[in-house]
Design a protein that fits this description.
Chain lengths: 533, 407
């Protein structure tokens, strides 16, 4: 009979911590999740805010705001539908072109082609080739994405077998797709997109996912990787499509919490962990900030690599190169949220009576140049004068997000560097909100009159509330030296740590951030394999 | 000039304005939209998570009146219409004298001797001939009324703002009400398996009633939905459709193309048949089927193993399709006994990817001994131009049944 209260302790109740705990509990481990806040979800929460002027009933996805990267295996393996999983299709994507016109993409491929043709007959067949080529790249790298990276630095036969698997797989990829893959992983989105499209707005539309959450502009090498990462998402098998979970991403993490609980995991809220207890180089439990000790032979951190390796354990117990790598790892949050409660739908002058263009993302970044200029400011420690905005009026897709006739709008806004030169986010918060709102006003005249409430979430707020270092939404930037077998550090990409019994399962591990669940799932496979379960 | 043979419904003048696609099918010779927007799945989600309206006017509607109206219907309908009180409606079916299903429909009882029967296929003369010696009048009132289905979790809130009766109306009950000053029959019926209502309204008042519903629904993001969304919804609800799940027995050439109510999954309608206490056209054949246990088929749901589905497509170098558009053809079901060589044991009549369930589901007919829930079977399909099979399991229907449907 074990003297431990638990078989496994998961530190952090974000979506990966919950996913991980659900898998461990499903395998029969007595598992507890320790969450510092009074609500699970980490950066994937939905909060009903008191909007004094408009009354109750407005739900905000404070941070993370849509679903696509979530691995479909997790939906089935954890039986999430039974616990309320409901991803609502976001049926359209709307891209004002900056000159009063727009690009509107939807669920009908032929109509999308016509929409491209309306702006550029030349770009119509490029549109088909572009998506086909990108799909092929996704197909080629999917096995890498969905399996733990091989340990190329290891010496045992398992490592050699993993490396052989990787080499064999890559050997089966045709030359064009391999070359496209490398171009995307190392090059800029602007170069990649420029090989297909000529029209500035069509280029701008396709570049939109290449800068999300990363301190890169679409012209920076590395933005291709960010673009590719987002394309790996899907909704019901449609690559690159997004969904809005019923009740927002907070609705989704509540589903995960119900699943984890149903498998027998315990979730403790308001339980911040101070440190991991070790004994002779082995993890034996954790100490909470209030001094409570909990014991378990397996401790798994769902926090980001800085917290996992530098805060929760004594760095002196770790190899120097790992500590050094984690210290040098780039976080550099550049994203903010501006969330609105609206009295009605905004009006886009060219589509005065339409609702359908508000079914999905409103992509406010007309051209690559616009987004690149927005990026420029961040290089010098300041926020964009005219930021890029990834907006969504979520109550159009899920009417339960707002009272009847009212709306909530989530705006992901870049660039907002974590460290401001000679100022602070407390001082700049509302001025930054004004900049974002002014951009919306320029595309949707009268927007400001609809605003019942505005919430500005700065990178510092992201860090303070969710624990994500420097407010980086991916728990470590998507840069080639921080991906795959280098994520979070060379030699430690397989979810274990140098401390026996101490594991990592957060977005700082492979494959990375977004509401994706893979780190939690793949880490559970590692833990269970080590425990011979 | 050609005569215009394709008709439109009383709601068409307004609904066609809301249709950005102008893609129609012909439902009973009437224009019926496949979809209103570029994304039928968005329309589907309006019903599963908000509210949608569907124009169901092309259904045949027969008024059945007279002192012997109940007698005629109880001699012809599979379900015991005598238990249907005024203010109630029954989903029902009728059979030929061999006990094979002809059509299904909903019968609304308005009073002791007044009914309205809907039908997916024309059936007036059949009922008239069976009622020729009775004091009953049948009238085809199809063109006199429009029928508007208002479906989804918010349907009650939308309609209650127009007709307070909606607030308390029970499942499959109906009540006379006023909407936009027009007399309507408000019923708690539908074909989506969700909370929902239907409004039956005189053709002249149809557009006014529709406008009132759309106005009341606007703050709830109401949207019209077409047949593509309806197909996914009705398969999730496990509801059979004539000419897909079965064919009119009187028009079939082979017995293999006919099904009995029990084989079609309507065995629950057959109260009083086995003991002979209730007689209707075909009941004697059905009684023998029940007593002798001679049903050839059992209708069941099937659900595809998602891992097997994905693996088969990925291995073939393809992306696993998850399409909410049903398969247009019938697929064979095989047993899962590798020693037995995978013999045919049934067939799948409807097959679709369910966004709500995140799985491919199907309505199937299998050998009765293989219908127990959880039985492993294989569904035949072609992948990359090669015939193969995917693992499926039988499961009870409906696939999707939220508490709100009946509460």
């Amino acid at each position: 009979m074990s003297s431990h209260e638990y078989d496994a302790i998961v530190v952090g109740g974000g979506h990966n911590g919950l996913t991980h705990a659900a898998y461990l509990a499903k395998a029969g481990l007595r598992t507890v999740v320790l969450e510092k806040n009074d609500l699970v979800g980490g950066a994937a929460i939905t909060e009903e805010l008191g909007v004094d002027e408009a009354g109750p009933g407005f739900s905000f996805t404070t941070f993370s705001y849509a679903l696509s990267l979530l691995r479909p295996e997790i939906i089935h393996e954890l039986d999430l539908v039974k616990h309320g999983f409901l991803p609502l299709m976001m049926p359209s994507s709307f891209h004002p072109t900056g000159d009063g016109d727009y690009l509107l993409f939807g669920d009908d491929h032929a109509q999308n082609l016509q929409e491209v043709r309306r702006h550029s007959p030349r770009d119509a067949d490029a549109y088909e080739r572009y998506h086909h080529d990108l799909d092929r790249v996704c197909q080629a790298i999917r096995p890498l994405f969905d399996n733990a990276p091989p340990n190329v630095f290891g010496h045992d036969p398992d490592d050699a077998a993993d490396v052989k698997w990787l080499v064999d797989h890559l050997g089966g990829v045709d030359r064009k797709t391999m070359h496209d893959t490398v171009r995307l992983l190392t090059g800029s989105a602007a170069d990649w997109i420029g090989d297909y499209f000529q029209h500035p707005a069509i280029q701008g539309y396709h570049a939109s996912s290449s800068v999300i959450g990363s301190k890169v502009g679409p012209m920076s090498p590395g933005s291709g990787l960010v673009l590719l990462f987002h394309k790996m998402g899907e909704h019901d098998g449609h690559l690159g499509s997004w969904a809005f979970h019923k009740g927002g991403n907070g609705g989704f993490t509540q589903v995960l919490a119900r699943a984890a609980t149903a498998y027998g995991a315990e979730i403790r809220l308001g339980a911040p962990v101070s440190s991991v207890l070790t004994d002779n180089g082995r993890a034996v439990g954790v100490v909470l900030e209030d001094g409570t000790e909990l014991r378990a032979p397996t401790v798994v951190s769902a926090l980001d690599p800085r917290r996992t390796f530098l805060d929760l354990v004594d760095a002196a117990e770790l190899p120097l190169d790992l500590v050094d790598n984690v210290r040098r790892m780039k976080f550099r949050g550049v994203s903010a949220k501006v969330n609105f409660a609206l009295d009605g739908l905004p009006v886009f002058p060219a589509l005065p009576d339409s609702v359908d263009h508000y079914g999905g993302f409103l992509n406010i970044g007309p051209t690559i140049e616009y987004v690149e200029r927005a990026f420029d400011a961040s290089k010098y420690g300041w926020y964009s004068e005219q930021p890029y905005i990834d907006g969504a009026i979520q109550s159009v897709v899920d009417p339960d997000m707002a009272p009847p006739g009212k709306h909530v709008m989530s705006c992901f806004v870049q660039y907002a560097p974590y460290e401001l030169r000679e100022s602070s986010w407390e001082a700049e918060r509302e001025r930054f909100g004004d900049k974002a709102q002014a951009v919306l006003e320029s595309h949707f005249p009268g927007f400001g009159d609809l605003v019942l409430h505005r919430e500005v979430v700065t990178p510092v707020d992201i860090e303070t509330r969710t624990g994500l270092t420097e407010g980086n939404i991916f728990a470590g930037e998507f840069l080639a030296p921080q991906m795959y077998f280098f994520r979070p550090a060379p030699g430690w990409s397989q979810y274990a740590t140098p401390i026996d019994g101490y594991y990592q399962c957060g977005s700082g591990t492979h494959p990375g951030g977004c509401v994706i669940g893979s780190p939690g799932r793949l880490a559970s496979q590692r833990v269970l394999r080590d425990l011979k379960r | 000039m050609l005569a215009r043979v394709i008709r439109t419904t009383p709601f068409h003048p307004r609904l066609s304005e809301l249709n950005s696609q102008q893609l129609y099918t012909h439902w009973q010779g009437t224009l019926s939209p496949l979809r209103y927007s570029h994304a039928p799945k968005h329309e589907y989600f309006a019903v599963r998570n908000g509210v949608g309206v569907f124009d169901t006017s092309p259904l045949y509607k027969y008024a059945v009146r007279g002192p012997d109206a109940e007698r005629l219907l109880s001699r012809t309908l599979v379900r015991d219409v005598r238990t249907c009180r005024p203010g109630q409606a029954h989903y029902t079916a009728w059979c030929d004298d061999r006990g094979y299903v002809m059509h299904d429909g909903v019968v609304f009882r308005h009073s002791a001797d007044e009914f309205l029967l809907t039908a997916g296929r024309p059936a007036l003369s059949w009922f008239q001939e069976l009622g020729s010696s009775l004091r009953v009048e049948l009238e085809d009132v199809t063109d006199a009324y429009g029928m508007l289905a208002v479906q989804g979790p918010r349907s009650r809130a939308v309609l209650a703002a127009l007709a307070p009766e909606a607030e308390t109306l029970g499942y499959f009950d109906h009540v006379p009400a006023k909407v936009a000053d027009a007399a309507v029959t408000l019923s708690r019926t539908g074909y989506t398996g969700d909370l929902g209502f239907e409004l039956t309204v005189a053709a002249d008042d149809a557009v006014a009633v529709l406008d009132a519903v759309l106005d009341a629904g606007r703050p709830h993001s109401i949207r019209p939905f077409g047949e593509e969304a309806l197909m996914t919804l009705r398969i999730e609800a496990g509801l059979p459709l004539v000419d897909i799940e079965w064919h009119d027995a009187r028009l079939a050439f082979t017995e293999a193309d006919c099904v009995t109510p029990k084989e079609l999954g309507l065995g629950w309608m057959l109260r009083g048949v086995r003991d002979g206490s209730r007689r209707f056209v075909g009941s004697e054949a059905i009684r023998r089927e029940l007593v002798d246990g001679t049903s050839r088929w059992a209708t069941t749901g099937i659900v595809v193993d998602p891992d097997d589905w994905d693996r088969l497509y990925r291995r073939a170098g393809l992306f696993p399709p998850k399409s909410e558009h049903p398969l247009p053809y019938e697929s064979m079901l095989l047993d899962d006994d590798p020693q037995g060589g995978h013999t045919e044991i049934g067939y799948c009549t409807s097959f679709v990817y369910s966004p709500a369930l995140q799985r491919h589901i199907g309505i199937a007919r299998v050998r009765p001994d293989l219908a127990a829930p959880g039985t492993g079977l294989r569904l035949e399909l072609a992948i990359n131009h090669h015939n193969t099979t995917v693992r499926v399991a039988t499961t009870p229907m409906p696939f999707f049944e939220p508490d709100r449907k009946k509460s």
